[in-house]
Amino acid sequence: MPEKPPVTLDLTWDAELRFSGSSAGIPFVLDSASKAGLAPMQALAASLAGCMAMDVVHILKKGRHELVGLKMHLVGRRADEPPRRFVAIDFAFEVAGPVPVDQVEHAIQLSREKYCSVWASMQPDIAFNVTTTIV
After folding, report:
1. What is the DSSP code (8-state) at residue 40?
2. What pLDDT, in 10s, does the model give residues 9-37?
3. Is 107 exposed, middle or buried (0-12, 13-18, 19+ CB in 10 A)?
4. Considering the entire predicted model, what is its pTM?
């Protein structure tokens, strides 16, 4: 299997705690106040929800199920003290179409245990390397 190219993105501080960014030519805004864009933890939650939802759709379609629609609701509870990480995440999937519930549950399990790169990336064993330049 060919190696996946690295994910790259650039951020530029705009004002206060708001940053403009782009990745693969797609612009976005991160805003701590959640006014001009998503706050970082909201972006992480959206990434996790999107990753799992895409996996579930892909798995069900590959299994030739007649999936008509899928909605997902995520609630992430955070620690009271810094770094205020997620301590619990609840997912609610709503699947439209004649898909057996056991197949939906299996697709969700496969996403969590094998395929969702965002969930796997939330693990503590990720190498962390930094360089700093002062201009």
Report:
1. H
2. 999 999 999 999 999 999 999 999 999 99
3. buried
4. 0.90
What band does 135 get if pLDDT is binned at 50, 70 and 90? confident
Is 9:25 a contact under the CB 8 Å cutoff?
Answer: no
**Where does 1-135 have alpha helices with state H?**
40-62, 101-110, 117-121
Q: What is the pLDDT of residues 68-127, one digit of tens each?
A: 999 999 999 999 999 999 999 999 999 999 999 999 999 999 999 999 999 999 877 778
The phi, psi pair for 19, rounded to 5°, reads: -130, 140
* Placement of tokens 């705690």 in the chain: 17
Question: Cβ(49)–Cβ(74) under 8 Å?
Answer: yes
State both tokens at 5: 């190219």
Helix (H) or strand (E) holding 93, with range, is: strand 86-96
Q: Which of left, alpha, beta for 21 (phi over 0: left; psi -120 to 50: alpha)?
A: beta
3-state secondary structure 4-27: CCCCCCEEEEEECCEEEEEECCEE
